[in-house]
């Protein structure tokens, strides 16, 4: 009986998966550069493909349109900033300082790429479909974590027990978003100035929540 040869697909599939992942990362990095340099309107998928040295079809395998490309290019960065911030919140600090720490990490990220930040803030409000759900989930995780911080402050007697955690956490996030929108309208984002404005808003809100 003839010996049946064994077909080994693992290494080949692994190489293709690695190449696909590397192409994906390359597309995102070039997209961020071009969005920042040319703006959203003047950046096209074809221009991104040309600079990446790939065919336009290769981009469409990953992204259905330019809005999806923008969302993907920014989501991973913001996710990384958020996860790092939430995992590094200083302990034994006031609720205000804890939230300002997290907000400060975001402000520093946006300040490093002001042109890209303007595009993000402008277009993130109109992202639809799966990416909208991903960004919403990202925001909800931040609000949920803030709610946990508020509960800890309650347990320590620094916040009245009848205060609604979700409402107060949402108010904090609303203040942060307002300051962010106002900041990206400026020529450059000053993280310290943004934090100062946010601290004023948070303290004003907490003045009605403290026992």
Written account of the structure:
The structure is a single chain. The protein is mainly alpha-helical and 211 residues long. Helices cover 73% and strands 0% of the residues. The protein has nine helices and no strands. Helix 1 (10-38) crosses helix 4 (66-86). The termini are far apart. The relative contact order is 0.10.
Short description:
The protein has 211 residues and is an all-alpha fold. The chain is 73% helix and 0% strand.
Q: Secondary-structure element order, as H and E?
A: HHHHHHHHH
Low-confidence stretches: 1-7
Strand content: under 5%
Number of contiguous helices:
9
Task: State the assembly state of the protein chains.
Answer: single chain
**Globular, elongated, flat, extended or rod-shaped: what is the shape?**
elongated
Determine the structural class based on helices, strands and strand pairing.
Answer: mainly alpha
Helix content: over 70%
- Rg, rounded, reads 22 Å
Largest sheet, strands/sense/barrel = none
Count of individual beta strands: 0
Mean pLDDT: 87
CA distance, first residue to last residue: 87 Å
Key traits:
single chain; mainly alpha; 9 helices; elongated
Walk me through the topology:
Layout (H helix, E strand, L loop, with lengths): L9 H29 L6 H8 L3 H5 L5 H21 L8 H18 L1 H11 L4 H27 L9 H20 L6 H16 L5
Helix pairs in contact: 1-2, 1-4, 1-6, 4-5, 4-7, 5-8, 5-9, 7-8, 8-9
């Amino acid at each position: 009986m003839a010996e049946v040869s064994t077909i080994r697909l693992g290494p080949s599939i692994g190489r293709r998966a690695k190449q696909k992942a590397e192409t994906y990362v390359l597309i995102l990095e070039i997209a961020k550069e071009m969005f920042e340099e040319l703006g959203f309107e003047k950046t096209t998928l074809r221009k991104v493909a040309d600079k990446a040295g790939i065919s336009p079809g290769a981009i469409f395998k990953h992204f259905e349109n330019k809005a999806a490309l923008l969302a993907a290019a920014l989501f991973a960065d913001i996710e990384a900033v958020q996860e790092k911030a939430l995992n590094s919140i200083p302990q034994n600090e006031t609720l205000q300082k804890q939230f300002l720490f997290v907000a400060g990490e975001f402000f520093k990220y946006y300040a490093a790429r002001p042109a890209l930040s303007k595009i993000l803030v402008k277009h993130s409000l109109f992202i639809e479909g799966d990416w909208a759900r991903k960004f919403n989930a990202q925001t909800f995780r931040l609000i949920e974590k803030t709610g946990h911080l508020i509960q800890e402050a309650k347990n320590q007697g620094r916040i009245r027990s009848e205060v609604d955690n979700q409402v107060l956490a949402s108010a904090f996030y609303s203040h942060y978003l307002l300051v962010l929108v106002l900041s990206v309208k400026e020529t450059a984002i000053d993280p310290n100035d943004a934090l100062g404005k946010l601290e004023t808003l948070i303290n004003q809100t907490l003045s009605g929540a403290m026992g």
